[in-house]
Each structure stands twice: as structure tokens, then as C-alpha cells.
Design brief:
heterodimer; A: alpha/beta; Rossmann fold; 3 domains; four-stranded mixed sheet; B: alpha/beta; 2 domains; 5 helices; 12 strands; disordered N terminus; disordered C terminus
């Protein structure tokens, strides 16, 4: 997927004009965040479990080499194979080579953000292997050739009518006048189409929510059961995960699973939580003969030990998206690449480079809600500020904004001058407002006054008032 | 993977590069990352973290919580006195819901004693599924009360696809297989020995999706119906987790897992 992160501002403007999208996002902001609160209220230990989950991941990151090697040796012990990929291109090559080795024509996929990150579908298609997304939302956007717009609800930006149009366009074998105006009818049609794919696929490609070092297991969560069909029916199972997904023990995985679904959808637990260890055992009645895990770095080791280290605790629950006022206004596509919302604005500069990610660190009001709902207690606002500092220091911001900041700094360091200028400014604005008490337009503040009035200052400046009261 | 010697070499060196980048980032260049007795101890003797109080209920309250939580996520639950009553309960459920009565049953010892022949209304076959069976019947390894979750393992008599392909999944579980918290699943599996099977499933309700306009619908790819038949009553042996949150092993497999060899 071509990143359009540099065009964030333009993307966001477009998104704000999209009524379908606004309706969908409105529904989102009235759904998941409240369900999360209800789930948290049902579990008195929720806050303590967040603390423990944070500590587990912090511990893993400090010892990541150890846990990855333990995980690797356990996978191999059980007859699986582990492949290491420094970047997206290498991961794509590894996966394609396994598919070719298996003689694969069709690969079923369960939703994986790492799969999106390395753009595996395009690579497989270009080399004659057909990838089929099986998560319902992901299947819909694959048909529409769109990227996901949410970590766990990839088609959240679409209305039912849009999905129906897509199905009528792409599923030509059904009667053109069939009814498709209920979500249930759409689900049934997708289920029928995908059931065949599950049964016929040569390779199943999944992500992994957790890599468990103790047992060499991957943990996968879904609500649809699509990951389980993907990893059970084909003869080869490939799981792809970024390196920070490691946890020490089954107990540690369990603690994190207790906060994952509650933070994401407000469920106590996702419907299917599956722990996979190695390939089919000799006496098993089904399962793949070949099991591969691809471990991806792609910028993680750059973030490790840096001021963005804590971002690697993220478990991709989407809670920060669901409660973010900026995401809630513009949706995921405006962010321009695979991730979105507060976690995306912190992570994507780390993966793509700050030069490529434009205004993303500024796509936040720094209201702090994201940090307050993050199960891993990642200090997202503080890290957004750090990216802003780097943007400024590396002269990636506009000349105008750097000049204004310079001017401000100059004033702020000279209290006498500052008070004089502020006093003048207040007087100027009051005069401009006349008797109305508010300003319809103001030089340098057109962005504000274009859609609302600016209240004119009344009376004296804060410093003047402060001085008086101290007497 | 036999991707050819060139690929292999590159893959090995990528491994070394990633690992050395990690050590570099953590300020441990050149250190032997694996010689860490403290970390090995954590892996060799796993300790539960915080276990929620509701995962530590005893006796009948535990079974009640299991049922309530399962029903909360749209599973259907019936309780019967003994294995004799299982076919009748399944026939009644399928009848009430207008579902087909052809069962594909796992040849698993856990439900080997169910007298299927007593119910003429049911047609019963044993084995794996090719996807055409409308109803799958399986045993369970354990049930977890804290979220109404059934735990199923893959194995030589337990095809994993039977848990996912049929429209209706019936799980038969003894009341004394229902434990409080997930941590007891791991304790019991370690007690059984032999490492983990390929698949450990935690199943909490029937399949669902809300991917179209956030409308929740059951039966996305997996079963549309999950019917749990609880057999018997709690055996009164109590929970297997001590007050300090540590696991004490149940009496040599009489409590759970004895049917799983």
C-alpha cells in the first residue's frame, strides 16, 4: 500500500466531507467506548490487570532477545520453522517462497495488521498466488481494493449499501435481483463464498496476537472463527508477527488476554482464543503438516531503547482509536497508511520515518483520552509531543510555524516586552470587536474565525490581574 | 523450508542482525543473551498473575457462573443428571430450534459412554468432518467459569475442524470439569504432562461478526449455535487454586482430565 501519510491534512479535509463516514464514526464513538466501560466495571481487577499487563510487556522488551530465542527453539522443537525478516521486502519473499514450495494457488488469510504492513497480498498476486481475506470486514475491503480503516473493524467506514453494491458487483454467480438489504443477507453470502475458499486453500496465513516463549505457541483471537479454519484446513500454516509480540509464559499471555477484548470491543473474551503449537502431530485427525512463523522487525529495533520504546507494548486493541476525537472525526483512511488513530500517529513515524509521515504527530489535541484507555498504559500524548519536537528540530515543520515559534520564544523570554505586547494585543482585539464582544475575523486566526466567532478579551491581561490580586 | 541455500544464508544473517540490533538497543552488545538463570526460572516455574475473584468461586456457584457467562454470550446451556440423558437433551434442543438431527460425534473417550442408540430421533456418525455435517458433538477438556468458556484440545480422537465447520456445535462437559479461572487450564495441562497439543481452543459463545455497520450477527464463519450440555453436579472437591493465587494440583486427575488419558 502506497503511504499517503504526507497528505494527511488534505485527506482529513476530504474525510470531513464524507457523510457516510461521519455516520459510521458516530456509531463507533457511541459503541465500543461504552462497552469497554461496562466490561471494565464488571471486573473489579481490571485496573490491576492493566498494570500487570504493562509490566509484563515492559519486562519482555528489556529481554526481547532472550524471549525470542526461547520462542524460536520451542517452535523448532515441535517441528515448526522460524524465519526472521529485517524488513517488509524480506518477509514478503519468505512467505512467497513457502507458498511456492507448497505449490499454492490459493492462500486463505485471517486478518493481520502485519500482513497489511508488509503488503503481502499485492506481492502474492503479482507472483500468481491468490490471497483471500476471510475476516468479513477484511474480505469486503479486499473486494473493494481498499486498506483497512480500523485495527479491529477494518470496514467500519462503509455503509451496508456500499457493501451490497460491492457484493453485487463481485459475486456475479448469484441472481442480480437477490435481496441484499439486511446485514444478515450480506453475511450469509460472504459465508457461502468463503466456506469454499477455506476448504480449497493450500496455505493458511494468519497473524499472531502473542508469541509465548515458554511453549513456542502463538495465540490468536477472533470472533468469527476464520483464523481457526485458516490454520486448520490447509496443509501449510504460516503465522506472521512482529518481534514485540513475545510474552514469557502462558500465564502472562492469559493476563494480557483478560484486558485485550475488554479494551477492544468490551467483550469479556473474544469468541475464539486459540493457542497453536507446531504442526499437526502424527496422530492428529487434522491440521497442517507444515508450520512456519515469520518474525518481522521492520523498524521495531530502531524504536527499542529509544524515546518511543514504550510504543512497543501496544497490543493493537484499538481502544485509543475508539475514544480519539480526531479519529472519530476523520476515520482511519485519512492517516494514510496501515495504522491510524493515536497509536498510528506514534507508530508510523517509527516505521516509515518522520519525513514520510507529515502532520501525523499533530493529528491530536493531546486531550489524553487515548492514554487513559490504553490497556498497556502507553504514554501516547507524551510520545506525540516527542515526535513534534523532533519535527521542529529536524526542520520538518513549515517555515511559517517555525518563525511563529521563534517569535513566541523571543517574547516569552522577555517578560517586560511580553506584557507590553500582550497589553497592546488585548486592546487591539477589544477595539476590533467594537461593542459586540466577539470577533468575526482576525488576522492570522482565519482557521478559527472561518467557522466560529472568537470571543474578544474583556478587561485586563492575566498577568495584570495576577499582579493586582497578589497585592 | 527448502527455499534454497542462498535464501537460507540470508535468513540466518537476518536473525543475527535482528538479535544484535536488539542487544545494541538495550545496551547489551556482545552479551550472551541466553545465559539468564533468572529468566529461565520464570519460564520453568510459571506463576499466575492476578486472578480475578470471580474466577475463584467454589462449588455450585462456580457452575452457575459458568452457565450465566456462557448464556451472556449467546451460548445455549442445558443441565442433565447423567450421560444417559445427553442424547435426549440434544434431541430436544435440535427439535426446539428446528435444526437437523444428523450428528457427527468425536470418537473421544470423554463422551464415549453416551448411549446414543437410545434416541431414535438422532442419526449418529463418529469421526472427522468434511464440512457437510450440520451438527458436531464434542467433549471438552475443561470449562472456565469466569467467562463461560469451554476448552477443547486437538488430538488423535479430536478433530479441530469439527469445532468450526458444522452450523451447530454441541459440547458435552461434566460439571466437575468446570473450573474457576484460565490459570487452572495451564496447571492441569502441565499436570497431564507431554506439553501442549497443537491446538488449545478457548471457545466463548458461538461465532459472530459486527463488521457490517457494527450490527452484531451470530454465525460468521464458525458455528451459528453453541449448545453446552453440563452433566451431573459439582463433585464438591473445591477449587484447585489456593488463596494466594497459586495453583494446587487436583487429586491426581480425578477432578479433571481423567477421561483424556
Amino acid at each position: 500500500m502506497e503511504a499517503t501519510t504526507r497528505q494527511f491534512t488534505g485527506n482529513a479535509r476530504q474525510a470531513l466531507k464524507n457523510d457516510n463516514l461521519r455516520a459510521a464514526l458516530d456509531k463507533l464513538s457511541h459503541g465500543f467506548p461504552y462497552k469497554r466501560l461496562e466490561a471494565a466495571a464488571r471486573l473489579p481487577e481490571f485496573e490491576a490487570l492493566r498494570d500487570q499487563s504493562r509490566d509484563i510487556k515492559a519486562h519482555v522488551l528489556e529481554n526481547l532477545d532472550f524471549y525470542l530465542q526461547q520462542f524460536e527453539s520451542k517452535v523448532i522443537e515441535q517441528g515448526g520453522q522460524v524465519h526472521w525478516a529485517k524488513d517488509a521486502a524480506e518477509a514478503r519473499d519468505i512467505i512467497l517462497a513457502i507458498c511456492q514450495e507448497a505449490g499454492a494457488e490459493t492462500v486463505t488469510k485471517s486478518k493481520s495488521m502485519i500482513g497489511e504492513e508488509i503488503a503481502i497480498n499485492g506481492h502474492l498476486e503479482a507472483n500468481g498466488v491468490r490471497p483471500v481475506e476471510t475476516d468479513l470486514g477484511e474480505y469486503i475491503i479486499q473486494l473493494r481494493k481498499e486498506p483497512p480503516s480500523h485495527l479491529i473493524a477494518p470496514a467500519i467506514h462503509l455503509s451496508m449499501d456500499q457493501v451490497a453494491d460491492t457484493f453485487k458487483d463481485k459475486h456475479r454467480e448469484f441472481a442480480a435481483d437477490r435481496p441484499l438489504d439486511q446485514p444478515r443477507e450480506l453475511l450469509e453470502e460472504a459465508r457461502t463464498m468463503l466456506r469454499r475458499e477455506f476448504l480449497a486453500a493450500d496455505v493458511g496465513l494468519t497473524g499472531a496476537n502473542l508469541l509465548i516463549a515458554e511453549t513456542g505457541s502463538i495465540a490468536l483471537v477472533t470472533n468469527e472463527g476464520n483464523a481457526d479454519l485458516t490454520l486448520t484446513l490447509p496443509n501449510t500454516h504460516i503465522a506472521i508477527a512482529s518481534i514485540e509480540k513475545a510474552v514469557p509464559t502462558l500465564e502472562d499471555a492469559t493476563t494480557i488476554l483478560r484486558v485485550l477484548a475488554r479494551s477492544a470491543t468490551g467483550q469479556e473474551l473474544s469468541v475464539y482464543t486459540t493457542f497453536v503449537s507446531g504442526p499437526k502431530r502424527p496422530d492428529d485427525m487434522d491440521g497442517p503438516e507444515n508450520f512456519h512463523v515469520v518474525l518481522l522487525d521492520n523498524g521495531r529495533t530502531q524504536m527499542l531503547g529509544s524515546e518511543f520504546h514504550d510504543m512497543l507494548r501496544c497490543i493493537r486493541c484499538g481502544a485509543c482509536l475508539n475514544s480519539c476525537p480526531v479519529y472519530g472525526a476523520i476515520g482511519g483512511h485519512a492517516y494514510g497508511w496501515v495504522y491510524s488513530g493515536p497509536m498510528g500517529s506514534v507508530l508510523m513515524p517509527g516505521i516509515l520515518g518522520l519525513e514520510q509521515t507529515g502532520d501525523l504527530p499533530n493529528a491530536s489535541t493531546l486531550c489524553g483520552t487515548c492514554e487513559s484507555v490504553c490497556p498497556m498504559r502507553i504514554p501516547l500524548p507524551a510520545m506525540l509531543r516527542r515526535w513534534r519536537e523532533q519535527q521542529h528540530a529536524r526542520r520538518l515543520t513549515s517555515t511559517k510555524s517555525r518563525m511563529m515559534l521563534k517569535l513566541w520564544a523571543m517574547l516569552a523570554r522577555r517578560p517586560g516586552l511580553y506584557r507590553a505586547v500582550m497589553g497592546l494585543g488585548v486592546g487591539f482585539m477589544r477595539a476590533l470587536a467594537g461593542g459586540r464582544g466577539s470577533l468575526k475575523s482576525l488576522p492570522f486566526a482565519g482557521g478559527w474565525t472561518a467557522v466560529r466567532d472568537l470571543p474578544a478579551p474583556e478587561g485586563k491581561t492575566f498577568t495584570a490581574l495576577w499582579k493586582e490580586r497578589r497585592k | 523450508m527448502s527455499a534454497g541455500p542462498a535464501k537460507k544464508t540470508r535468513s540466518v544473517s537476518s536473525r543475527d542482525q535482528v538479535l544484535s540490533a536488539i542487544r545494541g538497543a538495550l545496551g547489551r552488545e556482545g552479551a550472551d543473551g541466553q545465559n539468564r538463570p533468572d529468566l529461565m526460572a520464570r519460564l520453568d516455574n510459571p506463576v499466575p498473575n492476578r486472578v480475578p475473584d470471580r474466577g475463584r468461586l467454589d462449588g455450585p456457584a462456580r457452575i452457575d457462573l459458568f452457565q450465566a457467562e456462557a448464556e451472556r454470550v449467546s451460548a445455549d446451556v442445558a443441565r442433565v443428571a447423567g450421560l444417559d440423558a445427553v442424547p435426549g437433551a440434544i434431541a430436544a434442543y435440535l427439535g426446539e430450534n428446528g435444526l437437523p438431527t444428523a450428528l457427527k460425534v468425536t470418537p473421544d473417550a470423554a463422551i464415549g459412554d453416551v448411549p446414543w442408540a437410545q434416541q431414535a430421533a438422532l442419526s449418529v456418525e463418529f469421526g472427522a468432518t468434511d464440512g457437510s455435517d450440520p451438527v458436531g458433538v464434542t467433549g471438552a477438556y475443561l470449562g472456565v467459569a469466569e467467562t463461560g468458556t469451554v476448552v477443547l484440545l486437538s488430538g488423535e480422537t479430536r478433530p479441530n475442524s469439527l469445532n468450526y465447520l458444522p452450523d451447530t456445535h454441541v459440547v458435552v462437559i461434566r460439571a466437575d470439569q468446570i473450573i474457576g479461572a484460565y490459570e487452572e487450564v495451564w496447571a492441569q495441562l502441565r499436570h497431564d504432562g507431554g506439553g501442549l497439543p497443537r491446538i488449545v481452543n478457548w471457545i466463548t459463545g458461538p461465532s459472530r461478526s459486527a463488521d457490517i455497520e457494527q450490527t452484531l450477527m451470530l454465525g460468521a464463519h464458525g458455528p451459528r449455535n453453541l449448545f453446552i450440555v453440563i452433566v451431573g453436579a459439582d463433585d464438591g472437591k473445591g477449587i484447585v487454586m489456593a488463596d494466594d493465587g497459586t495453583i494446587v494440583t487436583a487429586d491426581e486427575g480425578t477432578r479433571v482430565g481423567d477421561a483424556h488419558g
